[in-house]
Amino acid sequence: MAEQAKTIKAADAALKVIEEWGVDHLYGYPGGSFDDIMNALHNRQNTMKFVQVRHEEAGALSAAAEAKLTGKISVAIGSAGPGAVHLLNGLYDAKHDHAPVLALVAQVPQARMNIDFFQAIDEGPIFDDVAVFNRTATTAENLPGLIDTAIRQAYKYHGVSVVIIPKNLGWTDIADTYQSNAKNHLAPLYPQPDPVAIDKAAELIKAAKSPMVYFGIGAKNASPELKAVSEKFKMPLVSSVIAKGIVEDTYPAYIGSTGRPAGKPGVELGFSTDLILWVGNDVPFSIFLFNKRAKVIQIDIDNEKLGKRHNVEVPILADAKTALAALAAKGDELQPSNFYRAAIANKNDWRKWQDGFATDKEQPLRPEPIFAALNKYADDDAVFGVDVGNVNINFMRLLDLKTTQKWTTSGQYASMGYGLPAAVAAKVAFPERQVFSLSGDGGFAMMSQELLTEVKYGLKTINVVFSNETLGYIEAEQADDTHQPLSGVDLPDTDWATVAEGMGAKGFTIRTFDDIDKVFKAAVAAEGPVLIDVKLTHDMPFTTEHMFIDKAWQDAAKVDEFVKKYQAEDLKPFSAYLKDAEAGKL
Ligand SMILES: Cc1ncc(C[n+]2csc(CCOP(=O)(O)OP(=O)(O)O)c2C)c(N)n1
Ligand SMILES: [Mg+2]
Known about the structure:
Blueprint: E1 7-9, H1 10-20, E2 25-28, H2 35-43, E3 49-52, H3 56-70, E4 74-78, H4 82-96, E5 101-107, H5 123-128, E6 131-136, H6 143-157, E7 160-166, H7 167-170, E8 173-175, H8 195-207, E9 211-215, H9 223-233, E10 237-239, E11 254-257, H10 264-272, E12 275-279, H11 286-289, E13 295-300, E14 314-317, H12 320-328, H13 338-355, H14 367-377, E15 383-386, H15 390-398, E16 406-409, H16 419-429, E17 435-440, H17 441-446, H18 450-456, E18 461-467, H19 472-480, H20 496-503, E19 506-510, H21 513-525, E20 530-535, H22 556-565, H23 574-582
Parallel strand pairs: 2-3, 2-4, 4-5, 5-7, 6-7, 9-10, 9-12, 10-11, 12-13, 13-14, 15-16, 15-17, 17-18, 18-20, 19-20
Antiparallel strand pairs: 1-8
The structure holds thiamine diphosphate (TPP) and magnesium ion.
């Protein structure tokens, strides 16, 4: 006698598919419209953890951060109407940084849709722009298949899939017969680089006077190959901001990143190079960062990216690792050029100059002594969730990242409030690793409620707030870009340590140089989540965008004024290093 098929509620079937993709937790917030999914979560509590965040935006940001840190699908849920709208900002972060995220969004029951019902909005259109896949379930039977398809699409298109679930569907019994093929999902294969293009690239590099590598996150698996190319052709390495960490900061020929958060040496190289080997990199600011006459060899796995941000001499459609390895195998090792030697000397002097402030006792404190403590107290496999603001500048320049550590920020979308949800995700995904969040006083306030999430789940994270009483990143723009009176940027002094204590975390305040070591020692040793409020100088970081450093072509009075303002007496322009190299002094 044929056995009768077992039945399952569609919401349970949906979670079963998600689980089959290796997901064992999701981030979100309940609502009446999501009772079906919350019920299914309760049913699966032994295998699927619900991380109750305190704002749906935080849940979506955590999912985005986790997907960026792990490369795997991560899931956020929000209830109908306001819950759905709150998700949106975090999903945009995932979209911009190409993170595979699945958002389950509740909808009122089908019978109440489209008749101006309580909390009912037309959810489809609001997710149209953010999602690579955005569908509303129409039958209970196809919900598991829809979830499966949504996850496949998120992986394939490196973005956000949204599945909107009218409440009545989740509660409906369906046959428990859906089979996901998640375990057989394969990573795509990429083409081998064209050998003719590799030969051409090698010739161009050899003929160049000042070639450099500019790599992005697409080179994340290619650290040894980047070094091999750099050593063979004596090309300094410069990265995009989010590609920091692919090559360790202490690697001699890694000069750092370029762009506003970068240090001076990387920025100067961009304007001095005549050939860029552009690897896995889609930085939108590229047009502002490089000598316009420089030739470009571009490596990317995505043909849409080839030539997107600049003109390309040699396009190479291949994975960074394979293409760089092919290039590194070409010809004999070159001798260090003047450009290469000057680049390294510039980096070393810049680091020496920065390090000079690490013991500075000025109050309120400069960032350098705090980052020196972070470098000292961070484990070799620590994870950093970095917010948006001056903390990006300080992190890029002052944190010596090891390839064994991880970090994430809101890269292309640059949403404030990212730091804390990213730290929550880091601790959930890597419970054994030490986790820091680093935020400004503006960014921290935006998602500060997530301290409650850390407390609720005992997520031991060290949350550092840099309190400079201003929206510093924007203050600097108003002062240096537009030369306008400061408008709307001032923030009140806030006792974040007391706020943290009120939320059940441990709170510390650092005011003086002598506080630093004591507080970090105690924070690292503490049991649960910790907040460190650093009372930071109001002075803005050294600007590389409006830099007056070279009297050879810049107004001498302006150079003097700039050097005095940033205590930059020990810094030399890149042209001086080039001259030293030409004179055989380097
Ligand atoms: C959600 C959001 N709103 C506004 C901005 C614009 N913005 C970028 S950085 C910044 C200031 C950040 O201030 P704070 O967190 O105090 O850091 P600081 O730069 O002072 O260190 C602002 C307002 C943004 N990026 N994201
Ligand atoms: Mg601030």
